[in-house]
Every structure is written in C-alpha cells, then in structure tokens.
C-alpha cells in the first residue's frame, strides 16, 4: 500500500508543476452540446465560403469573425427568396433551415412588425444598399422577438447583384 501512496505523491507533485490546469468533466452532455454547436457552425461557414467562391462574390466576408453561435446568416437570391439559412436559425425562431428555403424573409413578419422599418429595409434592398435595423419578428410558435439585422447586397466580380446576405441575432 505504501507503493501506491508514493505514486500518488509523485503524480501530485508532477501535476502541480504543470502550467496546465484541468477541471473534471462533470457531464458529457455539456461537451457533446458544445461540439455539436461548433461542428454545425464550421459546416455552415464552409458552405458559405463555397457559395462565395462558386458565385464569385465581389466581397469576401470573414465568416469566422462574423459568425458565432448566436448569429444567424440568411442568404437570398435577388428576388428575395431564401436560398440558405444557417442551422442555428432554429434556436432564434423555431424554424429549421430547410423550412425557410424558397420563402421570403417576410415570413417572419406580422402585425406587430413596424411598417416603417419594413419599408426602410425594402428601400435599401431596392436600392441595393446595406442596412442595419432592429425589427420585430415572429417565431414559428407565434411569439415575438426583436431581431437585429445587418443586410448587404452581394455582387459578383462582374458587378451584377447575385445575392443578399443578412447577419441576424436576437436584439
């Protein structure tokens, strides 16, 4: 038994000299949830980078810096039909990304949405200008949330409007 106590003392001394501090893993669920969020975010970033390259976007967005687990990215075609939404959209408003594809972002608006702000966003889109607005949107279950939207027109290398991209987060 003394041999084990010598080992324990030696191991304790060795660990205490390391600059590495560790905490016990209390629950695998926390780790699993973190890894899932990280993997999903990286997959979304990779897809957006591929879209940017394939469609030859004139602007190179730094998705690694612009996106985090609370930032939803929505990409529309010039006619304002959603062509891509990051997977974390479900955490913001209850819609799965596949449920919004092919629909207009107006699907998130309703009676409580300020018509003045909607008109300002519409004018910015019509004039192919960036915008930064907070709008009242609706979740899938009908509840309201304030959404901070930073929208940008996206042009290809030839200068043609190819997409609109919006970085959204709950305000």
**Strand fraction:** 15-25%
In one word, what is the shape?
Answer: elongated
Main sheet? 5 strands, antiparallel
The number of strands is 5
List the domain count as a whole number. Answer: 1
Average pLDDT, to the nearest integer?
90
CATH class: Alpha Beta
Radius of gyration: 23 Å
| CATH topology name | Beta-Lactamase
Strand order of the largest sheet: 2-1-5-4-3
Report the CATH superfamily.
Answer: PAS domain
Distance between the termini: 61 Å
Structural class: alpha+beta
Secondary-structure element pattern, one letter each: HHHEEHHHEEE
Give me the CATH architecture, please.
2-Layer Sandwich
Number of helices: 6
Are there runs of 5+ residues with pLDDT below 50, and where? none
Percent of residues in helices comes to: 25-40%
Q: Which labels suit this protein?
A:
single chain; 171 residues; alpha+beta; Beta-Lactamase; five-stranded antiparallel beta sheet; elongated
Describe the 3D structure.
By secondary structure, the chain is an alpha+beta fold. The chain has a single domain, classed as PAS domain (Beta-Lactamase), CATH 3.30.450. The chain contains six helices and five strands. A hairpin with a 5-residue loop joins strand 4 and strand 5 (161-170).
